[in-house]
Every structure is written in C-alpha cells, then in structure tokens.
Write a structure and sequence with these properties.
Elements: H1 2-25, E1 29-37, E2 56-59, E3 62-68, H2 71-83, E4 90-95, E5 101-111, H3 119-122, E6 127-131, E7 135-143, H4 146-158, E8 165-170, E9 175-176, H5 179-182, H6 228-239, H7 253-265, H8 267-276, H9 286-298, H10 308-314, H11 322-343, H12 347-373, H13 378-393
Antiparallel strand pairs: 1-3, 1-4, 2-3, 5-7, 5-8, 6-7, 6-9
C-alpha cells in the first residue's frame, strides 16, 4: 500500500510540475513591431537597412518586424528601429488564446535578412511565413485537419523536402507570402492554369442583355473601365495574400480566381459561406447571399431577411435622382469609416473587416455589371448599385457604432 501511495504522490507531483512547465512555456500573447502603413508596392528590399533586425512581413496592409513571445524580448529590436528613424514604430499585441489552431508543414528556417530563393518552395503550393525574434520559418498550409496535413507532407517529402514536418500553430502566427516577401511576383509559381499572380488578362465577352438575377460566377462583365469597387475588392484580396497582380481596377479572370480562392482559404469567408448555404430566401446571387449572411451576424435583429430577387425586381430601372444618389453614397462612405474604426479594436474585428470588405465589394461589382446590362452605367450605375446594397443591409448597421 505504501508503494501505491508513493506512486500516486509522485504521479500527482509530476503532473502538477508538467502542467506548470507547460503553462510557462505556452505564450498567451504574440507581439510584433508595427512600422506603419506604406505604399502598396513596397518590398522587403526597400528596408535593407533594417532587414537584419527581425524578419519583415506584411499583414493587412501594414508592415511588421518579427514576432516575439514577450514584450521584453521585442524592446531591443524596437529601440534599434527607432534609432534608424522609425520613430512611430510601436509594439502591437495579439491574443494567442483567441486564435484558432491550424496545421502547417515547415519547409525551412532562415535568418532574418537572409535572401531567400522563393522558387525553391513555390512548387509545394500556398506559402506562409512564421517569424520569430531573429529567424523566419517557411511553411506550407494551412490545414484545419492534421490528417490532411499528413497526407500533403508525404507528397512534399517526395518533392525533395525530406526534413519537412507537420506543425500545430495558431493562425495569428502565420502570414501569407506575397510579392512583398519575394520582391517579384514571378518568384511565386502557382501550378494552376491561371496564376493569381500573373498580370490581368483582357477578358473578351459577348455583351448580352440577359438578366443575371440567378447568375453568380457566370455574370457577364460588360464594363471595360477602371472601377473604384474593383480596386477595393482587389485591395481586400491583396490584404488576404491571395491577389498578387496590380491593383488596376479592372475586373478580369485573375481577380475572379483570387475571389474564388478566398472562399476556400479565408477562414472568415469560408465559415460564412457554409452558413449562407443553409439559409433559404436569399435569392440566387452567391456573393450577395454571402454578404447578407455576414451582416446579419453583426446585426442584433432577429427578423427574417428579405428576398434578394424581390428587392431587385422592385428597384426602378432608371437613374436615381441627385438627392437619392448623394444619400446612397453618403451612407456608403459613412459605413466604411465606421467599419474601419471598428476593425482597429481587436484582431478578430480586423479579420472580419477584411472578409466583409471582399464580400461587399464583390457584391457591388456584380450589381454594377447587372445595371450596366440594363443600360445604367458609370456613376449612375455605381450609385444605383450602392443604393441596392443599402436596401439589403443598411438595417443590419442601424445601431452600429
């Protein structure tokens, strides 16, 4: 009996010690140094003077240096950056507890500032970086199911990455590789018939007058000019790391491919897409149904959503009055100012904001195409498209501050 009691005591003591050690070794907060916002076409090579301090990466349009498990470990790097002239640099924190666990496949580890041949790794598929204090890990992913990652691991090892391995990480720890990292969008070779990083091709279409009420991906793009709505859509996709071509405001195959990819890879859009498919009465427009599902989640209301096709059928097929046009555009501008402010309050809100941005502007582009087919183009078509979205989702933001 004494031996059993001693064993139990040792087991309990060991379990307690292990739990304490695990708690001590598992950081709850991730820190990174934000340098600020720069022109959208900046590259790592534009920061040669500081690249060796910590790996520079881009997230949601902002440039960050390194990732640290404590504020204390980041302070020396922050001091160096300030000394180099980045006086506005500051430490930003993300909660590790609130971030979901995903699985990646680690391919290599490099020192901060080291030149990386991205072509070597591009053949495996989507790439992400995992910076730490002085290094960066290059990983492929990400996967929600570890078994899917293990299947891909065997394929990657057969490509020559014998030392690759599966790693469980928090989603907040990884950043999509873009041309900011590579310096040249051609360095990332995507093994698809149409690379999302290739320049936008000219899309030749037949201009028909078919009503696309129940069309989605097959909508005819008859507008061949630069559009602000497409620019915003491309910016949102670029923030997700899924669009590497120029932000030119032209709706083409590359932008459409990147949007389709966002529905599969972006966690927020993927979740709302699955939820949207369960709702009935949202009409046949996939993009608008997705947007309305997202805004309904943000709304405190519980009344049933309107049917899209009914709303569109009731809209006048003529230009808005000047007063209606101004009212719709003011609603649009004020909404996005509020959303931008809201996005800065938490990492979660920031992720939802980016996903909402993509869903909203993809819907706006679709509506502009629809009204262009009805002969309402240019500013008039944009205003009517915005007014349509206002009709569909404005009530969801009535109490939004």
């Amino acid at each position: 009996m004494k031996q059993i009691a001693l064993f139990i005591a040792l087991f309990v003591g060991l379990s307690t010690a292990t739990a304490q050690l695990s708690s001590a070794q598992s950081p709850t907060t991730l820190y990174s140094i934000e340098l600020g916002e720069f022109e959208s076409n900046v590259k790592q090579t534009d920061f040669d003077a500081i690249r060796g301090y910590a790996y520079l990466h881009k997230r949601d349009g902002k440039i960050y240096a390194g990732s640290f498990t404590s504020a204390e470990s980041a302070e020396p790097v922050l001091a160096k950056l300030k000394a180099k002239g980045y006086s506005d640099a500051y430490l930003k924190a993300w909660s590790m507890k609130k971030s979901e666990t995903v699985y990646v496949i680690q391919l290599a580890s490099k020192s901060a500032g080291e030149n990386i041949n991205w072509r070597t790794y591009a053949k495996v598929g989507d790439l992400f970086t995992m910076p730490n204090a002085a290094q960066v890990r290059i990983v492929h992913g990400y996967y929600d199911d570890i078994n899917d990652a293990r299947v891909k691991l065997k394929e990657i090892q057969n490509m020559g990455f014998a030392d690759a391995f599966v790693k469980a990480v928090k989603e907040v720890q990884i950043n999509a590789v873009t041309d900011f990292d590579t310096g040249d969008k051609k360095m990332l070779i995507v093994t698809e018939s149409e690379s999302i990083l290739d320049p936008e091709p000219e899309v030749k279409v037949k201009t028909t007058m078919l009503k696309p009420i129940y069309r989605s991906k097959g909508v005819v793009n008859t507008i061949k000019t630069k559009r602000k709505s497409v620019i915003k859509l491309q910016e949102g996709l670029k923030e997700m790391g899924l669009y590497g071509a120029s932000v030119d405001g032209m709706m083409g195959k590359t932008t459409s491919t990147a949007y389709d990819k966002s529905l599969k890879l972006n966690r927020r859009l993927k979740t709302y897409q699955e939820l949207a498919e369960k709702y009935e009465g949202f009409g046949g427009w996939e993009e608008v149904r997705l947007l309305m599902t997202m805004t309904r989640e943000l709304s405190p209301k519980e009344d049933p959503a309107p049917i899209i096709s009914d709303l569109l059928d009731n809209l006048p097929e003529e230009n808005l009055t000047e007063k209606q046009k101004v009212s719709a555009l003011n609603w649009h501008n004020n909404l996005w100012k509020k959303l931008e402010t809201w996005s800065t309050t938490s990492q979660y809100n920031d992720q939802v904001y980016t996903a909402l941005k993509v869903a909203y502007y993809r819907s706006l582009v679709h509506l502009e195409d629809y009204f262009a087919e009805q002969g309402i183009k240019g500013e008039a078509g944009t205003a009517l498209s915005v007014a349509t979205l206002q009709t569909l989702i404005a009530s969801d933001f009535e109490n939004f501050n």
